[in-house]
Amino acid sequence: MSTQTGPALDTPSRGHAFVAGPKGLPLLGNLPQFGKNPLAFFELLRGRGDMVQWRFGRNRCVFISDPDCIGELLTETERTFDQPALGVAFRAVLGNGLIVARGRDWRRKRSLVQPSVRPKQVKSYAATMASSAVELADAWSDGQRVDIKREMAALTQKIAVRTIFGVDTPADSEAMGRAMDVAQLEIGKEFAGIGALLPDWVPTPGRARIKKAAAVIDSEVGRVVARHRDGETERPDLLSRLLTAVDESGERLSDEEIRDETVTLYIGGHETTSSTLVWAWYLLSRNPRVRAALTEELDRVLGDREPGFEDYAQLTYTQAVVKETLRLYPTIWLITGVAKEGARLGGQPIEEGTRVWSSQWSTHRDARWFPEPEEFRPERWDPAGGDEIPEYAWFPFGGGPRVCLGTRFAMVESVLILAVLARRFELDVEPGVIEPVPSLTLQPDRDVLATVRAR
């Protein structure tokens, strides 16, 4: 399916040369078009060329679609491109965490957070991922009607609470979950609306709602952090590792920094995986051939047993299903950077202060890199006979020095959950097209209702 609306140029300009984008309005630039449907707008820009100039309010912008330029943007971040200033809603939730931090502060925080999500640690969390999925599978029954959004959100919340906080109290996940739902909605509204151009001091109903949600998040995280500090130090969860991590000068993260990194990890471990799984079930329901190939692999590799971390490498088709889901419905659908002095892309100088944009949604659906781009075809990821995919034509987790630290966590979690549930059940999603809504992550526009069918 495609969200593209409006005509593209018949002869798009490909290569490393600037072309003009759609004509904008005084003061607002192209913000009205962007705000109405960001995904369609990015597809429209891609139709114009590989380096398209446009305006976000008064800000000069360039939208890039060529994987080489995308790679330059991602790998040059921190050197010739900077993180953009993000809106009030985004900062209220994420504070100055790893996603937001810049320069020396970012490098310090990355060095402290990275050990918590290395492969060895992810392996230790795999048992929790699988056992939590088994609990859900045991609760399902043949013929049951479920809301997949709600089911996957509850499951990944449980895993996040167990792996990050080391607790299993429903109140922890429920309060955080409700606040994060509000936060995600308000971040999307502010980013694509007039709020993106308003000064920080201007009060709006949306900003009031996000501050209230952030206060709940602060309270919940603060309560769990205090409990960790008062208890034993030797715990296997992510929060305990953050609390004991020290930088090269021997200093630990402050309480505020702990809060920011914990929320960042929570979003990465819950929101992104939940969204990916919802889209995977939707796509599998619409593609019986792929569903049959998936269950064939699960039966062959697992038989009658539940999966563990040691099975991850053998579940290659299951991994391909997740990768193809992330191609068609990338959880993170947008990256941006602000050009510093001397910035260049594709050999072209980029004026200092220009905001450079690229979209996973748009690039992942480019027929130059993905033949039949609208088709759900996991076989394109087969290393032996799949498509030749250029580097940075697929970048659901970003790339370069600021690549998402939770990439392996998210992949292992998605594959193990899918393996546990799809080995026992098929989910028949109700007919009808479900459209993506770009907010903090790419979410379905409505409840995703399905009937559980025991295999």
**Radius of gyration computed on alpha carbons:** 22 Å
Distance between the termini: 29 Å
Mean pLDDT, to the nearest integer, reads 88
Low-pLDDT runs: 1-10
Largest sheet, order of strands side by side? 1-2-3-9-6-4
Biggest β-sheet, characterized? 6 strands, mixed
Strand composition percent: 5-15%
Can you count the beta strands? 13
Q: In sequence order, what are the helices and strands, one letter per element?
A: EHHEEHEHHHEHHHHHHHEEEEHHEEEE
Helical content class: 40-55%
Based on Cα principal axes, name the global outline. Answer: globular
Q: Strand pairing plus helix content: what structural class?
A: alpha+beta
Q: What is the helix tally?
A: 15
Explain what this protein looks like in three dimensions.
This protein is α+β, with helices and mostly antiparallel strands. It has 15 helices and 13 strands. It has helices spanning 31-36, 38-48, 67-76, 88-94, 103-113, 119-139, 148-165, 170-192, 205-230, 238-244, 255-286, 288-302, 316-328, 360-364, 407-424; strands at 19-20, 51-56, 59-64, 81-82, 145-147, 335-339, 344-345, 348-349, 355-358, 425-429, 436-438, 442-444, 449-454. The strands form 4 sheets. A 6-stranded mixed sheet has the order 1-2-3-9-6-4. A hairpin with a 2-residue loop joins β7 (344-345) and β8 (348-349). α6 (119-139) packs across α7. It is globular and about 60 Å long. The model is unreliable at 1-10 (pLDDT under 50).
